[in-house]
Automatic annotation (TrEMBL):
Signal peptide: none annotated. This is Glutamate decarboxylase. The keyword Lyase applies. Its cofactor is pyridoxal 5'-phosphate. GO terms for biological process: carboxylic acid metabolic process. Belongs to the group II decarboxylase family. Sphingosine-1-phosphate lyase subfamily. The modification N6-(pyridoxal phosphate)lysine is found at residue 194. It comes from the Archaea. It holds the Pfam family Pyridoxal_deC.
Amino acid sequence: MATVLGGMVPRPPWRYRLLAAIHAHRNAGDPGADPVVERAIDGLVKATSRAVLGVEKPGWITSGASEGNLLALYSLREEGYRRVLTFDTSHYSIHKSARMLSMDLELLPTESGRPSLELLEKKATPETVIVATVGTTQEGLVDPVGEIARIARSAGAAVHVDAAYGGYIARFLTGKARFSLDPPIHTLVVDAHKIPEAPPPAGVILASNQRILDNLWFESPYIPSGRQFGVLGTRPGGPIVAAWRRVENLERNPGFPRLASILMRRLRKTLEALERLGYKTPVTPDLPVACATHPRMGEVLERLEALGVRVYRCPRYNGVRIVMMPSTRPKTYVKYLALDKS
């Protein structure tokens, strides 16, 4: 397996890989037929909601935030919101989902990744879904969800929160990620296969109320439960069982507040070491994701490619992405990016 720098879906701890393999035969697409999967779904949703919001909200499993974003926008479209308004730092799955759902999409420009609330206020309308990101892919920034919700409430708009990377830790690091999942904030998605390092695919969608979720249940008369959730029919149950155990275990030890602090400390240590190698950080991140640039970035990338190292980039800044996960250590980035040291 190739060395990967800057990835957000790391190799899960062995015990959770084993747990996913043990339960690989289970189908989460028909949860009523399997009490183990049913319990895992309930446990994962509740543990995730406690970590992300501090309270338990209605939710269900997804294959990840890309599916979750599609489902959230679909549900809100069914509620009468036909337009998507977001920032140029939003994840590509938002753009893809809007296109698939034939929803009008407008991307608002940002300044060094930070949104203009004044411009948002001018653009928001009653038929709009505003998408806020908790952990932008290239900068590790958090959109000010509470202020965005205030603008949406005034305009009669809805808010969807894409917290794929940052959901489990963001509220412990920045006030911009402390909010309640209540109207006008209707939906939130998060990945258990990112920060918790659960085996993929494992994600969760949370909603302000059950009706928003009910839009995502579809009649399936030939299976015993008579209905299925979301896009997929068959869903792998093994990763859901493993994700449930992983998230609950992290909730207890070390706890998500402490994990957030650990990861930010590692990021700072990494960036300080890279600075001594000539790298710069164009944007100060809110979460343990950053972009590192170098005057000879082309040469750095060529050398890494020659070594077979797969590198995730931040093309807005012509740099490489630095991502901290529970299993990531600063020395990994220093080891490979120090190749450029003269």
